[in-house]
Specification:
Blueprint: H1 4-13, E1 16-19, E2 22-25, H2 29-32, E3 38-40, H3 47-57, H4 60-76, E4 86-88, E5 94-96, H5 109-115, H6 120-129, H7 141-153, H8 157-169
Antiparallel strand pairs: 1-2, 3-4, 4-5
Protein backbone atom coordinates (compact mmCIF):
# COMPACT_ATOMS: atom_id res chain seq x y z
CA UNK A 1 0.00 0.00 0.00
CA UNK A 2 1.11 3.53 -0.72
CA UNK A 3 2.39 5.48 2.25
CA UNK A 4 0.00 8.46 2.45
CA UNK A 5 2.63 10.47 4.31
CA UNK A 6 5.31 9.99 1.59
CA UNK A 7 2.83 10.67 -1.20
CA UNK A 8 1.43 13.81 0.38
CA UNK A 9 4.93 15.10 1.18
CA UNK A 10 6.03 14.77 -2.47
CA UNK A 11 2.87 16.59 -3.56
CA UNK A 12 3.01 19.29 -0.86
CA UNK A 13 6.62 20.24 -1.39
CA UNK A 14 6.35 20.25 -5.20
CA UNK A 15 9.69 18.49 -5.50
CA UNK A 16 8.90 17.22 -8.98
CA UNK A 17 7.22 18.54 -12.11
CA UNK A 18 5.82 16.72 -15.12
CA UNK A 19 7.12 18.25 -18.33
CA UNK A 20 5.98 16.86 -21.66
CA UNK A 21 4.91 13.61 -19.99
CA UNK A 22 8.11 13.14 -17.96
CA UNK A 23 8.39 13.57 -14.22
CA UNK A 24 11.56 15.49 -13.31
CA UNK A 25 13.18 16.20 -9.97
CA UNK A 26 13.34 19.89 -9.21
CA UNK A 27 16.52 21.24 -7.60
CA UNK A 28 14.59 22.92 -4.81
CA UNK A 29 11.43 24.74 -3.84
CA UNK A 30 12.75 27.85 -5.61
CA UNK A 31 12.36 26.04 -8.96
CA UNK A 32 8.76 24.98 -8.30
CA UNK A 33 7.43 28.51 -8.66
CA UNK A 34 9.33 29.37 -11.83
CA UNK A 35 7.77 29.17 -15.27
CA UNK A 36 9.20 27.21 -18.19
CA UNK A 37 11.92 26.31 -18.90
CA UNK A 38 12.39 24.10 -15.85
CA UNK A 39 15.85 24.07 -14.22
CA UNK A 40 17.21 20.63 -13.40
CA UNK A 41 20.45 19.19 -12.12
CA UNK A 42 20.85 15.77 -13.76
CA UNK A 43 23.10 14.52 -10.96
CA UNK A 44 20.51 14.98 -8.21
CA UNK A 45 18.53 11.81 -8.92
CA UNK A 46 19.80 8.48 -7.65
CA UNK A 47 18.19 5.51 -9.39
CA UNK A 48 18.81 3.38 -6.30
CA UNK A 49 17.05 5.92 -4.07
CA UNK A 50 14.02 6.20 -6.37
CA UNK A 51 13.78 2.39 -6.49
CA UNK A 52 13.95 2.14 -2.69
CA UNK A 53 11.37 4.88 -2.21
CA UNK A 54 9.03 3.20 -4.66
CA UNK A 55 9.39 -0.13 -2.82
CA UNK A 56 8.66 1.59 0.50
CA UNK A 57 5.68 3.62 -0.68
CA UNK A 58 4.35 1.97 -3.87
CA UNK A 59 3.75 5.55 -5.05
CA UNK A 60 3.82 5.41 -8.87
CA UNK A 61 5.44 8.85 -9.01
CA UNK A 62 8.77 7.34 -7.93
CA UNK A 63 8.69 5.06 -10.98
CA UNK A 64 7.69 8.05 -13.12
CA UNK A 65 10.63 10.00 -11.71
CA UNK A 66 12.97 7.10 -12.41
CA UNK A 67 11.81 6.88 -16.06
CA UNK A 68 11.82 10.66 -16.54
CA UNK A 69 15.32 10.99 -15.08
CA UNK A 70 16.64 8.17 -17.26
CA UNK A 71 15.19 9.84 -20.37
CA UNK A 72 16.66 13.19 -19.32
CA UNK A 73 20.12 11.68 -18.85
CA UNK A 74 19.86 9.80 -22.12
CA UNK A 75 19.15 12.99 -24.03
CA UNK A 76 21.82 15.06 -22.26
CA UNK A 77 24.63 12.50 -22.34
CA UNK A 78 24.34 10.88 -25.75
CA UNK A 79 27.55 12.50 -27.04
CA UNK A 80 29.17 14.02 -23.93
CA UNK A 81 29.13 14.20 -20.17
CA UNK A 82 25.84 15.67 -19.01
CA UNK A 83 25.96 19.29 -17.90
CA UNK A 84 25.86 20.26 -14.24
CA UNK A 85 22.64 22.16 -14.94
CA UNK A 86 20.10 21.94 -17.72
CA UNK A 87 16.79 23.47 -18.70
CA UNK A 88 13.79 21.57 -20.01
CA UNK A 89 11.25 23.43 -22.09
CA UNK A 90 7.52 22.75 -22.39
CA UNK A 91 8.32 20.64 -25.46
CA UNK A 92 10.44 18.31 -23.29
CA UNK A 93 13.71 19.26 -24.96
CA UNK A 94 16.60 19.36 -22.48
CA UNK A 95 19.57 21.65 -23.09
CA UNK A 96 22.63 22.60 -21.06
CA UNK A 97 21.84 25.76 -19.07
CA UNK A 98 23.90 28.48 -20.81
CA UNK A 99 24.07 30.54 -17.61
CA UNK A 100 25.86 27.79 -15.66
CA UNK A 101 29.14 25.95 -16.03
CA UNK A 102 29.31 22.95 -18.33
CA UNK A 103 30.19 19.52 -16.94
CA UNK A 104 31.89 19.76 -13.58
CA UNK A 105 31.64 18.41 -10.05
CA UNK A 106 27.90 17.80 -10.25
CA UNK A 107 28.07 15.92 -13.55
CA UNK A 108 30.81 13.61 -12.29
CA UNK A 109 28.24 12.07 -9.91
CA UNK A 110 26.13 10.81 -12.82
CA UNK A 111 28.25 7.78 -13.80
CA UNK A 112 28.68 6.88 -10.12
CA UNK A 113 24.94 6.96 -9.43
CA UNK A 114 23.97 5.18 -12.64
CA UNK A 115 26.56 2.45 -12.14
CA UNK A 116 25.25 1.58 -8.67
CA UNK A 117 21.85 0.74 -10.13
CA UNK A 118 20.84 -2.84 -10.96
CA UNK A 119 18.78 -1.60 -13.93
CA UNK A 120 20.53 -2.33 -17.23
CA UNK A 121 19.46 0.98 -18.81
CA UNK A 122 21.09 2.94 -15.95
CA UNK A 123 24.28 0.91 -16.19
CA UNK A 124 24.40 1.54 -19.96
CA UNK A 125 24.30 5.28 -19.28
CA UNK A 126 27.22 4.93 -16.84
CA UNK A 127 29.19 2.83 -19.32
CA UNK A 128 28.54 5.29 -22.15
CA UNK A 129 30.09 8.14 -20.18
CA UNK A 130 33.53 6.54 -19.75
CA UNK A 131 34.76 7.85 -23.10
CA UNK A 132 33.68 11.39 -22.20
CA UNK A 133 35.63 11.68 -18.97
CA UNK A 134 38.75 13.81 -18.91
CA UNK A 135 41.73 11.55 -19.59
CA UNK A 136 44.31 13.88 -18.09
CA UNK A 137 46.48 11.74 -15.77
CA UNK A 138 46.47 14.56 -13.20
CA UNK A 139 42.67 14.59 -12.89
CA UNK A 140 40.80 14.14 -9.60
CA UNK A 141 40.29 10.91 -7.70
CA UNK A 142 36.52 11.31 -8.09
CA UNK A 143 36.90 11.42 -11.86
CA UNK A 144 38.93 8.20 -11.80
CA UNK A 145 36.28 6.61 -9.56
CA UNK A 146 33.56 7.63 -12.00
CA UNK A 147 35.54 6.01 -14.79
CA UNK A 148 35.93 2.86 -12.71
CA UNK A 149 32.17 2.79 -12.11
CA UNK A 150 31.49 3.15 -15.82
CA UNK A 151 33.89 0.35 -16.71
CA UNK A 152 32.35 -1.90 -14.05
CA UNK A 153 28.87 -1.11 -15.38
CA UNK A 154 30.07 -2.13 -18.84
CA UNK A 155 31.42 -5.40 -17.45
CA UNK A 156 35.11 -4.51 -17.89
CA UNK A 157 36.42 -5.31 -14.42
CA UNK A 158 40.07 -5.09 -15.46
CA UNK A 159 39.66 -1.50 -16.67
CA UNK A 160 37.61 -0.69 -13.55
CA UNK A 161 40.37 -2.00 -11.30
CA UNK A 162 42.99 0.07 -13.16
CA UNK A 163 40.93 3.26 -12.82
CA UNK A 164 40.34 2.60 -9.10
CA UNK A 165 44.07 2.03 -8.63
CA UNK A 166 44.67 5.48 -10.17
CA UNK A 167 42.05 7.00 -7.83
CA UNK A 168 43.59 5.51 -4.71
CA UNK A 169 47.07 6.87 -5.59
CA UNK A 170 45.80 10.47 -5.49
CA UNK A 171 46.07 12.16 -2.13
Amino acid sequence: AESPRMASEMERTQETRVVHGRRLLLPGQWAADRPSPVSVNPSYVSPVATQMLWRASKDRRWKELERGSRALLGSLSSRRMPPDWATVGDDGVAKPDPSKSSSGWDAIRVPLRQAESCVAADRRIAASLVGHLDHDPARSAVSWMAEAAGHAAAGDQEAADKAMARATKIR
